[in-house]
Design goal:
The chain is an alpha/beta fold. The protein has a single domain, classed as Metallo-dependent phosphatases (Purple Acid Phosphatase, chain A, domain 2, 4-Layer Sandwich). Helices cover about 35% and strands about 25% of the residues. It has a seven-stranded mixed sheet. α1 runs parallel beside α3 and α5 packs antiparallel against α6. The longest helix is centred in the middle third of the chain and has 28 residues. It is globular, with a radius of gyration of 21 Å. About 5% of the residues have low confidence. The structure holds manganese (II) ion. The site of manganese (II) ion has 9 residues, from loops.
């Protein structure tokens, strides 16, 4: 998908998390497209990059998953500072704080000073997951929770449709209820994280874990979430003026492809028929 006509996007810092390599739901190819499209001084991996839990229960690995790892290692070897904070799905690496994969060093948490002087705590965020504590890991995290809902809903709907030959049951209303539950959990998580940051002297926090990218202000505290590369294909980027924004990579791909369709479309005439091709 990487297009040679697009210049690399320049960022001071990039934060990404929850790629879940090793799970069949990982959007590794889109994440790779993102990595191929940017240039950053620093890339911080904010946890759940490799999904060890998923590998344990159902081994899955394809070439794109390898390509992501190779790309990160090669970036780290060619001048980009790449740091890795393990999450709960790759918590095995929390036993190796201070060690490195090539030039990628492992940290428990990090502190970041933005170009405009804000001090931020970087952490995966599973410690703040009240839901996970309450239910004793019954549901792994909200991302998995959303996934379970949608998959079950789809499966049931397909089955009903096959059996009864019509839309028998409303996926939309089912999802509405599920979404309301998820929104509540997301709010609880965001508040829990921000409240605990308030007294620490940090201006804000960057975390991942719940697969909901966001930029929010809770009183004085900046709350930023990296999102995920399982559903939303989102991350956080710091521009050279210190501003941080959420990027939605599938939107960026759409913009880029529309741009190229528009500017690079050619018209050929074959046997009297008009044929359009794109470079
Ligand atoms: Mn997590």
């Amino acid at each position: 998908m990487y297009n040679k006509y697009s210049p690399l996007k320049q960022y001071k810092t990039v934060w990404v998390s929850d790629v879940h390599l090793g799970s069949r739901f990982s959007k590794a190819e889109i994440f790779l497209d993102f990595l191929n499209s940017i240039q950053a001084e620093q890339i911080i991996l904010v946890g759940d990059i490799i999904d060890i839990w998923s590998l344990k229960s159902n081994w899955y690995w394809n070439q794109k998953h390898s390509d992501v790892i190779l790309k990160l290692l090669s970036l780290a070897n060619s001048g980009t500072i790449v740091k890795y904070i393990p999450g709960n799905h790759d918590e095995i690496f929390r036993d190796y704080i201070g060690e490195s994969f090539g030039n990628i060093k492992i940290y428990r948490n990090l502190e970041h000073l933005t170009a405009d002087g804000k001090k931020l705590l970087i952490t995966h965020g599973d410690e703040y997951d009240v839901f996970m504590k309450d239910s004793y890991r019954l549901v792994m995290n909200i991302g998995d929770y959303i996934h379970q809902f949608i998959q079950q809903a789809n499966r049931l709907n397909l089955w009903l449709r096959r059996v009864f030959k019509r839309d028998y049951w409303s996926l939309a209303s089912y999802l509405k209820t599920a979404t309301r539950d998820v929104i509540k959990l997301v709010n609880r998580f965001e508040k829990a994280v921000s409240n605990s940051i308030k007294i620490t002297g940090y201006d804000g926090v960057i975390c991942g874990h719940i697969h909901q990218a966001n930029k929010k202000q809770f009183d004085e505290t900046i709350y930023l979430n990296t999102g995920d590369w399982v559903d939303s294909c989102t991350g956080l980027v710091e521009n050279y003026d210190g501003t941080i924004e959420v990027i939605h990579w599938t939107d960026e791909i759409m913009l880029r492809d529309n741009f190229h369709d528009h500017f690079y479309e050619k018209e050929y005439h074959i046997n009297g028929n008009v044929v359009h091709t794109q470079n």
